[in-house]
Write a structure and sequence with these properties.
elongated, single chain, 2 helices, alpha+beta, 4 strands, two-stranded antiparallel ribbon
């Protein structure tokens, strides 16, 4: 995780490594994640390719991703 994007104008860098253990359940449609419920996450390239952000925010995101 690199950080959090707040609106369009603010990216807060909070780099950290996270280990997540998923609880799975088998349904008639296959395996599904039962827990934990995670917040939305996106890949850097996907974010920068689809959302128009100010150059200052893009610079902060690219800098955090390069580390």
């Amino acid at each position: 995780m690199l950080g959090a994007l707040w609106g369009r104008d603010s990216f807060v860098v909070t780099p950290r490594s996270t280990q997540v253990v998923f609880e799975l359940v088998r349904t008639p449609w296959g395996w599904r994640i039962d827990a934990p419920q995670l917040g939305p996450m996106v890949l850097v390239d996907s974010l920068l390719g689809r959302v128009a952000l100010p150059d200052s925010v893009v610079g902060v995101i690219r800098g955090a991703a390069a580390q």
